[in-house]
Amino acid sequence: MTGRAVCESFRPVLWSEADTDETIRQAKANNAVGAAICGWGR
């Protein structure tokens, strides 16, 4: 899968206040990778 295909296939992970601290940490880590590779949040 090419980088472009990955960026078109995946989206940022959202969380809620009901999620655990660990789940939120993992979502933020995932989103940081997406931001670096795919430009999420620009």
Question: What can you see in these coordinates?
Answer:
With 42 residues, this protein is an all-alpha fold. It has one domain. It is 60% helix and 0% strand. The protein is built from two helices and no strands. It is elongated. The chain starts with a helix and ends with a helix.
Compute the average pLDDT: 92
Total count of domains: 1
- Spatial shape: elongated
SSE pattern, N- to C-terminal: HH
Q: Which segments are poorly predicted (pLDDT under 50) over 5 or more consecutive residues? A: none
Estimated share of beta-strand residues: under 5%
Kindly state the percentage of residues in helix: 55-70%
Top keywords for this entry?
elongated; 42 residues; mainly alpha; 2 helices
Please give the structural blueprint.
Elements (H helix, E strand, L loop, with lengths): L2 H7 L11 H18 L4
Describe the structure in brief.
This protein has 42 residues and is an all-alpha fold. The chain has helices spanning 3-9, 21-38.
